[in-house]
Design a protein that fits this description.
The chain is an alpha/beta fold and 315 residues long. The chain contains 9 helices and 13 strands. Helix content is 36%, strand content 24%.
């Protein structure tokens, strides 16, 4: 299977690392904003073609699918561009930063019948998979999820500490992970509230946010997000269940008493990004809907839209 990767930044390289471990996959083109660093990534991973133009990548002979790790604001239009070219597409989270754009991607996926998936990595991390299987088996039910998403990002930097060409967003990007995961683990969301702190004078975004969710099952979720946190960074998920408590830290899991949980048999890898890419490729090969398809995750973006409207109304 021949794949193009657009967005040769910090997260794009995580996908390239994962794709190298999947049999029968070849990345034939890499797309970036500037040709010099894009060519350097192509050289590092042995990719024959590098370009700054997605359209040029889409014309590469034999191309089957595209993975988009480009700036959030480009995701929806580029996903539609890929499907218009007849290519399957995986869009990194978030699918969009407006509900109308997300609905347009879903309409295009339904029109073309192509595989269209979103990088909601939490569905694939072994830690969350382990608990999802227990929930599906009826062994436990979520009572409350307490989630902290914390960064120290008062300047516009990426995960490598490099200047970004676009502005990240607590609601449309970082909250999307937890809103989708909570619904995935506890059921459809029926109530959602949000408040935010002051907006950054230059970036124009809220640097702190608090979100409350309630699922149809009665489970609740409390999500705290910050770009101001100068301490342990990342996202930490506490699952308070009717039959145990767990804390998930990306691909690791401990009990509420900090006892490590062995996740070695959960999946073929302990890397959520690799598992996400494996699902994308398997869905294409098997002609089936992938986990985290555009259709499956769109309810998350409907909740984010509702929260945005609430925050805008609050001023």
């Amino acid at each position: 299977m021949k794949i193009a990767l657009a967005g040769a930044g910090a997260f794009g390289e995580k996908h390239l690392d994962g794709l190298q471990k999947i049999d029968g996959v070849e990345v034939i083109s890499v797309v970036g904003r500037r040709i010099e660093p894009t060519q350097a990534v192509a050289d590092k991973y042995g990719i024959a073609h590098a370009t700054t133009d997605l359209a040029e990548a889409l014309e590469q002979p034999g191309l089957d699918a595209v993975i988009l790790c480009t700036p959030t604001q480009m995701h929806a239009a580029q996903a539609i561009q890929c499907m218009d070219a007849g290519k399957h597409v995986q869009v990194e989270i978030p699918l969009c930063d407006s509900l109308a754009d997300g609905e347009a991607v879903l309409a295009k996926a339904q029109e073309t019948g192509l595989t269209a998936m979103v990088g909601h990595t939490r569905r694939f991390n072994p830690s969350h998979q382990f608990l999802h299987r227990k929930i599906a088996a009826g062994e436990l039910n979520v009572q409350q999820m307490d989630v902290q998403t914390y960064f120290f990002r008062r300047q516009n930097m990426n995960a490598k500490g490099e200047a970004r060409s676009w502005t990240d967003h607590l609601l449309w990007h970082h909250a999307a992970h937890t809103v989708d995961l909570f619904a995935y683990q506890a059921g459809p969301i029926v109530a959602a509230n949000a408040i935010e702190g002051p907006h950054h004078p230059e970036l124009g975004i809220a640097m702190d946010m608090s979100i409350q969710l309630k699922a149809e099952s009665g489970a609740i979720c409390t999500l705290s997000l910050s770009f101001n946190n100068d301490g342990p960074l990342g996202t930490f998920f506490r699952y308070i269940c009717d039959n145990g408590t767990w804390i998930a830290r990306y691909d690791d899991l401990v009990t509420g008493r900090e006892e490590p949980v062995d996740l070695s048999g959960v999946a073929v890898s302990n890397n959520g990004i690799e598992l996400q890419d494996r699902e994308f490729i398997a869905a294409i090969r098997e002609g089936r809907e992938p986990n985290a398809s555009v259709a499956q995750v769109l309810p998350c973006y409907r909740v984010l839209h509702q929260l945005e409207q609430q925050l805008n109304a609050a001023g």
